[in-house]
Amino acid sequence: MLPNYSEADTRSKLIDPALRERGWLEPYIRREVNAGGLYKIGSRWRRENKFADYVLRFPVADHAEPVAVALIEAKRNTLPADHGLEQAKQYADARRLNVPFVYSSNGYRFVEFDAATGQTSPARLMSEFPTPEELCQRYEAYKGFSLDDEKAKPLLSPYTGGNSVRRYYQDAAIRAVMEKIAQGGNRMLLSLATGSGKTRIAVHLLKRIADAGQLSRVLFVCDRAELRDQALLAFQNVFGNDAQPVSTANPCKNARILIATYQTLDVDTDDAEANFFLKHYPANYFSHVVIDECHRSAWGKWSIVLTHNPDAVQIGLTATPRQFKFKTATPEAQADARITADNLAYFGEPVYEYSLGQGIKDGYLAACEVVKSTINLDDTGITLEEILARNSVDALTGQPITEAYLRKLYEKLSYENQILLPDRVLAMCRDLFDHLLETGGPEQKTIIFCVRDHHAAQVAAQMNNLYSDWCAAQGCTPKEHYAFKCTAASSGNDMLPDFRASGQSYFVATTVDLLTTGVDVKPVRNVAFFRYVRSPIAFHQMVGRGTRIYEPDNKLSFRVYDYTNATDLFGQEFITPPASTQKPAGEGPEPSPEPVIEVRGFDVRITDAGRYILADVDGAAVPITVEEYKAQIAARLVERAPYLPDFRRQWIDPDARKALMLHLPANGQSALLIRDLERMDAYDLYDVLAELGYGLAPRTRRDRVDAFFVEQAGWLAAMEARSAYVIRTLAAQFAEGGTEQLETQYLWRVSAVRQAGGLRALRDLGRPADVLRETKARMFAA
Fold first, then answer.
1. Rounded CA gap, 649 and 396, in Å?
2. Residue 488 sits in a domain of what CATH number?
3. In this structure, are residues 522 and 548 in contact, taking their beta carbons and an 8 Å threshold?
4. Do 119 and 164 share a domain, yes or no?
5. Last residue of a domain, one of 578, 601, 624
6. Are β-strands 575-576 and 419-420 bridged in parallel, bridged antiparallel, or unpaired?
7. Mean pLDDT: which of 193-197, 470-474, 517-521, 752-756 is highest?
8. CA separation, residue 689 to residues 554, 626, 641, 644, 674 (Å)
9. DSSP E strands: which ranges in 357-498?
10. CA dist 418 to 393, 434, 564, 719, Å?
11. Above 70 in pLDDT, residue 777?
12. Other C-beta atoms lying within 10 Å of the C-beta of residue 375
């Protein structure tokens, strides 16, 4: 009869010895990590990592970086050998670990999926598992190059600072680029979600290429000074003074890594002459060119940067790879558009992709709640007669608008663009401000996307007024610079450092498109759409301002407040329509100002249109209802714990609870998100999940402790007085921080626990670990 091993025992007792027998020694077996879940212990956050079981790396030479070639998913010995194959294939494909060979094993036999052939093998004995040399030969045949080739040398260069400097998908992206180079390619596109670290990828990719002796000069091009400064810091952390910023006063020709903006190079507009670029950098001056946020470059003459360096390795970085639909155009115009507007036509399909949905699922990007609202005026529209009846005025002069003039302009009017509706602005601002009050208070970092510069100014003014009124009602002093306009036409750009860093001022930024790309403001908790957006590219870049996790501020999720149905663009392809006189909102310069009319006196009503959660659906980030999301959590929960007693047993065991949480959507962050959405901060996650999965009426942590004292009074009375006292003190710790508060290594250093007798008092009842386990079991008995 077979022993009943756990997955861990299957690995250590069966799979590990079999791999060693086949030549896979410990240094060449790595457990790749993704972020997993974040758990709060008191005021501290702890991340529980999630592992792919084995990533096999071929040892090409001593002191060289082993090359990842395969993944093994281990399953307990009582399951079929192919039980974990589909799970392993999800980890291994081009969206994840980027390895061609995938295995599932129960310790006795294994099944192989070969990405080169698309074939799945029958089960075979572990004694037949491929050796390192065999998999290396198959890897080289599949990739089309030898690891001894000169162009493959960067694959063997170790990471500066070790493997801890990168995440699993960053390593996969770096390897994908280096494999393309080894194959003889020199154009690569990387598509990774905003917040996933595209600049970090570029830095370590170029460093490994430099260490292999294959880098002479690099040009890193970005969209504006703010992004240049961010990139410069990242590059100098690794390359030191070899990385320098290009300015009109200094082309930095002595540096190896040049970081420049389109504006500095004089390639940022259609009529730019590229004089600075052509004067200082001759043809093929650079061995490598990196275009950051390459989707942004559909306007201007930036293609000359690439056509002037045809022999360079050219890498495009973006979260939203752009495609272009052609109408009639000259061959020359189409050729230029393929470079400047169609990323896929020029660079080819991405060599690696990492989506927003995948980043949320892995726990590297913040979960997203979508709050949709409808506005009565937007549903019904307004008529010319309604405008005339309200004595509209010129927004600049305040002079009345004649009926004849209004009729002439009417066909061109759009809300907050050529027609200002102060009542609509106030209603939207008041609704958003109320949401902020309900979700933690008004002093949350928030970005509001507006239609035009004057609309952004109005919104900032109204948000400041609402905040001042609230502070007066609360009897508190308003913090400085609460809401501010941050547009290309204002000095708001100068306030970005304060918006990013300050926790005591600069809370609400109203903008048009200045904050749509690249600017790293990790504490942003809310993104609001007060404007209509037609471009999926612009929309995803706007949403990307909230995707970064910020642990110092306990930011694990963010909210999108949608007043214009902008979130309908989730899941749509990044296709740019043919050029027209009016570019899509958020994708280019604003059109020339036209007459602006101000109309007051409308009754504006805003109605809740539902809450949604952004989820990964077939590789795309798509909003689903909160109820659907809860159902997904419940389904995954009962897979691992079919009944409430099963759940309770797993919950009180730290290792079992960790495995259970990582089995939930988004590696357990889904539970934290639901607790936040349902305003259940006073509840332990046990009660949040027990209600979802088993219909248990939830109790707050305080109520659960009070019930514990009543229901376990007999158990406590039978103890020594000092033992009962320390148990009561531990229960108070649960009331403060929940289950994890009873398991932190700092528990016995807590002043109240020490004063109650601490470990000494607990030892009177037996082993402290056993007593703690029983205390938790009794805490959750009801």
1. 69
2. 3.40.50.300
3. yes
4. no
5. 601
6. unpaired
7. 470-474
8. 21, 14, 11, 10, 9
9. 367-375, 393-394, 419-420, 446-449, 483-485
10. 12, 28, 17, 77
11. yes
12. 20
**Which residues, 6 or more positions from 71, have their beta carbon under 8 angstroms from its beta carbon?**
52, 53, 54, 55, 56, 88, 91, 92, 97, 99, 101, 102, 103
Q: Please count the structural domains in the chain.
A: 4
266 assigned to some structural domain: yes
Share of the chain above pLDDT 70, in %: 87
Residues 7-62 have pLDDT tens digits of 888 989 999 999 999 999 888 888 766 655 554 444 445 555 556 678 899 988 88
- Both 470 and 544 in a single domain? yes
Give residue 264's Cα distance to chain centre.
30
Half-sphere exposure of 542 (CA within 13 A, CB side): 35
CATH number at residue 47: 3.90.1570.30
Would the pTM count as exceeding 0.85? Answer: no
**Other beta carbons less than 10 A from residue 709's beta carbon:** 12
Same-domain check for residues 338 and 420: no
| Residue 79 CB partners (closer than 8 Å, separation 6+) | 106
617 touches 357 (CB < 8 A): yes
The DSSP bridge pattern shows strands 101-105 and 109-114 to be antiparallel
| One domain for residues 420 and 557 | yes
Q: Which strands form 446-449's sheet, in the order they lie side by side? A: 483-485, 508-511, 446-449, 526-529, 557-562, 367-375, 606-617, 620-625
Q: Is residue 365 part of a domain?
A: no
Q: How far is CA 327 from CA 321, 337, 577, 774, in A?
A: 20, 12, 9, 72
Q: Which domain holds residue 272?
A: 150-354
Q: What is the pLDDT of residue 588?
A: 39
Q: Give the residue-averaged pLDDT of 608-618.
A: 87
Which residues, listed in sequence order, are joined to residue 527 by a DSSP beta bridge? 447, 560
pLDDT in tens, 226-284: 889 989 999 999 999 999 999 999 999 999 999 999 899 998 877 788 999 999 999 99
Span 719-751, pLDDT tens digits: 888 888 888 888 888 998 898 888 877 777 777
Cα distance between residue 631 and residue 628, in whole Å: 5
- Is 688 a member of any domain? no
- The whole-angstrom separation of Cα 37 and Cα 91 is 17
Gap between the Cα atoms of 572 and 648, Å rounded: 42
State whether 166 and 132 are in the same domain.
Answer: no
Angle ∠(550,554,559) on CA atoms, nearest 5: 75
| Domain finish residue from 553, 582, 601 | 601
Beta bridge partners, 559, equal 369, 526
Other Cβ atoms closer than 10 A to 535:
23
- 242 and 344 in a single domain? The answer is yes
Distance between start and end Cα atoms, the chain: 39
> Is residue 623 assigned to a domain?
no
Q: Do residue 414 and residue 348 come from a single domain?
A: no
Same domain (yes/no): 325, 197: yes
pLDDT of residue 591: 41
